[in-house]
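Comment on this:
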Amino acid sequence: MNKKKRIAAVLLAAALFVAVFAGASAVAAHRVSAVEQKSGVLVYANEKASIDASNLAEGYLLIKYTGGNKNRIRVQIMKENGVTYTYDLNNAGTVENFPLTEGNGTYTARVLENTSGTKYAIAYSTTLNLTLRDAFLPYLYSNQYVKYDKNSAVVKQAATLVAGKTTDADKLKAVYNYVVDNFAYDYDKAATVQTGYLPSVDHILSIKKGICFDYAAVMTAMLRSQNIPCKLVVGYADTIYHAWVNVYVDGEWIEGAIYFEGDKWSLMDPTFVSSGARSEQVMQFVGNTKNYTQKYAY
């Protein structure tokens, strides 16, 4: 081989190495891991409320109310020119975790006190500039809607389900099938659930029965505990207010809930599939993205 050919071969090998390395990095980009929660490093507060931004770059805030008011307390998180998220907050001074799911930018976070009827006054408000350490982080942590920790039963169950599985696709399939095949829809709860209800994922796992919100929260907790980015989405299925799951796998977000058909992912809603016993009619409905309209992602 002459000198020119040797140089060309070396350059080609280098180019291929760079291409393969870049491709591998792109596929594994979401493999950033959640880190241990910090507190007290960066806190904005007054005598009525505290907004702890120590984990801002991780995509969430720790908020508590300390004003002593026993009326209803709420949190609002608004991104500039974005969606406004409104949450209930306990009035006992206990910290709760709230995600920042609208991406990088300027956010306003405020704590509101109920004064009378439907009227609220601002107890505290602050503006924050968010630059995420990684775009997937808001969907890898526990929060008020998907609450768990390393000792939670859902985390242990997820570890059992994915044992021996090496790909996110296989892990996702295992978690999905477990929930769909073992959980029953709670029609009585659906008819009586109150505004402000939040799932207790370990309790739902123990009774294996719940509403769409419960199904989605359990699946989301399990998948996040396995470092698989996952969104709990609230919106409309046709005209019904509903909850489902979006998952990032194989380099893309699977919008809408999920179902594995052997060689591809399809839109699938775990609540409808479980309660419908995977009937053909149910599969056709949940496989049509036009039937789903996202309102919020947690």
About this structure: The first strand starts at residue 43 and ends at 45. The two ends are 59 Å apart (CA to CA). The helical segments are 3-27, 153-161, 168-182, 187-192, 201-207, 212-225, 270-275, 280-286.
